[in-house]
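W.,

You were right to be curious about this one. When I first looked at the sequence I had no strong expectations either way, so I just let the prediction run and decided to look at it fresh. Below is the sequence, 230 residues in total, followed by the output.
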Amino acid sequence: MFARTDVAIVTTTLLLIRHAQPEGHQQGYPLRLSGWHDVPLSAAGRVEAALLAQRLEDEDLGGPIYASPLSRAMETATAIAAVTGQIIARVAQLKEIHCGEIEGRLVEHVRRAYPAQWAANLRQDDADFRWPGGESYREFHTRCLAGIARIAASHHGRRIAVVTHTGVVSQLIGHIRGVSPAQWDCFRPGTASITALEWRDESSVVLTFNDQEHLRSHAVHAVTRREHPP
């Protein structure tokens, strides 16, 4: 179990869960940029989700499981709910960043077709950067904070599971650590990982980051690959 913190201020403990491995993100597959591009879990991802669910079976979770409505998050949340018996609440604010015109395109195609934008994104120094037709990092940051603050405020003193995406976890930790929304590569958790926060309005705390202990002894976690930026 994740340790509780004794504090005078009433807090909400948030277990931020990154969805399990999606289809097309297996080693050797040509990688596509997937913000709102909706893909299901891979076969390995379904195994990861089952192992994650086993890990959470004995957690004292209150309220529903909050989840992004994208398939990869919903399938992960469904696996957890099958074990814990909780209901699932879909929250659009928990979706990954919207990449506009490049959604679902191959990374190599984006590099060639948008060289200036690709270079600008890699610099990570402009919170107002957006892909054509997409969402800026500043807008994404604001959306993530609004969604998680609303969830936390509804469950003071409880432990809540939130199934979401890499970008959302990164923005929330970046907010706590005072990092610019543009710096998307600072806190990027692996698939089916758990990041625990004590959420308070002014003084939130990161308890654990990228906990994948439930995957470590299984072949499903033997090969990982670094993901490209959205």
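Here's what jumped out at me. Residues 3-8, 222-226 have pLDDT under 50 and may be disordered. And, maybe more interesting for your project: Residues 15-156+166-199 form a domain with the Rossmann fold fold (CATH 3.40.50.1240).

Coffee later to discuss?

I.
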